[in-house]
Structures are given as structure tokens and as C-alpha cells.
């Protein structure tokens, strides 16, 4: 964690392109418990440009949610950001979101207003004892100096925008009155009610059927284009990434394994793990569905492999190299980086 530029103070002398909204640099977030340390996120670097859609993908437990909780500063108590920076472009002022208290004024102003989040389970975004309208109105009024009536008008407009069938009536309903798809839309309305610059969507369509999934994704794309907001789309589903995102970050066991444009990473994948993930997408062949899962299983977070975390499952394992040290991230094309010794980085070994 950086102490040199506390939250609220502008970061000086750092290369920060003006079209970049968020720059996560070497983020390390660990869980500390009696059983040991879980390095949930262990050196992740990526940028989100204004208005772009970045995908984050990887198997369960690779640190996707902990990355987003770190950006939002909503980590559980026993989690600590132990290294790196999360630089956010707050109207031209660069703020390190890892510094300072999660409940500080600056972080509270950014969370929910500038950066909003939607989850897999809409019930976790809403309280069951208040109408969805009241919760959207309250969120609007925390961040904007508007009257209740004005906020109600904005809330109805937003419910209309996300495709609620009857916004004037839906606004006074509780989540238990709504179907799964409608709850999902209401959660999107809540997240967007302050017109955030960045929306983090953590598996927003995992719990809904494919028709609703397609509707929600279409909605996100429309709103993204309309409002010009950026989205971080976290998902297991590489089809969603291919369809929706501009760039993608592939993670494995808290590490960044490959990062770049969807064009590069999906059409010219370099890392054996990315290749494995792409090969494991179910394929329809006449009469059956073919699945080629990655061999082996994800190890326990308490017993991480040395060196490259993927080496025990890797067909291209180089003995004496891959198990010794973490591979560095190597640029292999403009907008394409990979952390694998197959593409260099061995000379950096001590
Ligand atoms: N509250 C917690 N306490 C302890 N360990 C945790 C906690 N939350 C996550 N972890 C650990 O951190 C690591 C990363 O978890 P995370 O939830 O970020 O994975 P994920 O990529 O989002 O997985 P999924 O695809 O299943 O949502 C895992 O090893 C997980 O066990
Ligand atoms: Mg998750």
C-alpha cells in the first residue's frame, strides 16, 4: 500500500494517460487467518480506459471478486491490500484508492457514485423491507442535491431505461414482488442511478437463464454506449467476454496470466492456461457436445505451487525454470502481454 500519496491527495509525477479511468498496478490482496495466508490477488496490473469494456476471466477462486472488492474497498475485515496501487482518475485528479480508510469521505464519494457494482445475486443489493424505489431514491439523494420528487422522477426514468415493464408501479414494489429478471434490471437501475463512470459487473448473469442473460447483456451494452461509462465485466463465460468486451484479463490463482485486446487474446492466445480455457468452451459437434477440460485441478489456496502457479497442470512445463520463479509479464505485441517463460523472461532469473 502506498503511503506517499494518501487518499484525496493528487498523485504527482506518475504516467497517467488522460483517457485512462482506472489503473490497477501490481495489486496484492491477501486474507490472513490462523490457517495461513491466502494470496487471493497477487500482482495484478490492468487499465480501464474511459468508456471501454474490460473482461476479467478465470476459473473459480482465481481472485476476480477479490479484485473488484479491492477497487470498491468493500473487502471483508480479514482481507488486506498488502501491495500495489489502484489509481482512479477523479475528474483529472489521480487518487490512490488503496490508501486511506475505506469509509473516508473521498472513498465514499467515489464508491456508488463514480464506481458502482452489480452482483450475481440482486437480493444482496436491495433490502427486502424497503421498496426498490425508495432505495434508488436514497442512493440518488446521497450523491446529488435534489428533492425527493426530483429523485423519484429520475428513479422512474432509470427503471424505464432498464426495461422495467411499468416503472410508475414498479417503483413502489418490493424485491419479493419481482421476477428474477426484473430484480436483475432493478439492480442495474440502482447501480446506474448516479450515472457512474465505471460499472463493475461481477458475474451478473450467472444465476439467470440464457434468455434473461442475453437481455441483460444487451441492456448493459446499450447503456454503456449511451452514458459512455466503462465496464469491468467479470465472468466465467468466455462467450460473454468475446461478445461484449474490448480487452480481457485472464487470471489464475491470483496471478495475471494474459492481458490484451480480445482480438489478440482470443485469436492468438499465448499462455497455455488461456489456450486451455478456450479449448474448454463446449463445442457442438453433430450428435453431441464436446468439452475438453483443462487437466488437473485448482490447488488449495493454502498450498500454492512454487514458480508459475500453472506449472503442475501445464503441458509445456520447462523443468528447472517454471517451478523456480514467477514468470514476469512480457509484452509480445502492442496491447498483448503474457506471463509465461515460453515467450521469454528467463534471462531475468537470478
Ligand atoms: N471471505 C474470504 N475469506 C477467506 N478467503 C477468501 C474469502 N473470499 C475469497 N477468498 C479466497 O480468495 C481467493 C479468490 O477468491 P475470489 O472470490 O476472488 O474468486 P473468484 O475468481 O471470484 O471465484 P468465482 O468464480 O467462484 O466467483 C480464493 O482462494 C478464495 O478462497
Ligand atoms: Mg467471484
Summarize the structure.
The chain is α/β, with parallel strands linked by helices and 350 residues long.
What can you see in these coordinates?
The chain has about 350 residues and is α/β, with parallel strands linked by helices. The chain has a domain at about 20-105 and about 235-350: Rossmann fold (3-Layer(aba) Sandwich), CATH 3.40.50.300. It contains 10 helices and 14 strands. It has an 8-stranded mixed β-sheet, sandwiched between helices. The protein has a 4-stranded antiparallel β-sheet with strand order 2-1-4-5, with helices on one face. A two-stranded antiparallel sheet has the order 11-12. Helix 3 (about 130-145) packs across helix 4 and helix 6 runs parallel beside helix 7 (about 210-225). The two termini are about 25 Å apart. The relative contact order is 0.13. Residues about 1-15 have low confidence and may be disordered. Bound molecules: adenosine-5'-triphosphate (ATP) and magnesium ion. Magnesium ion binds near residues 64, 65 and 202.
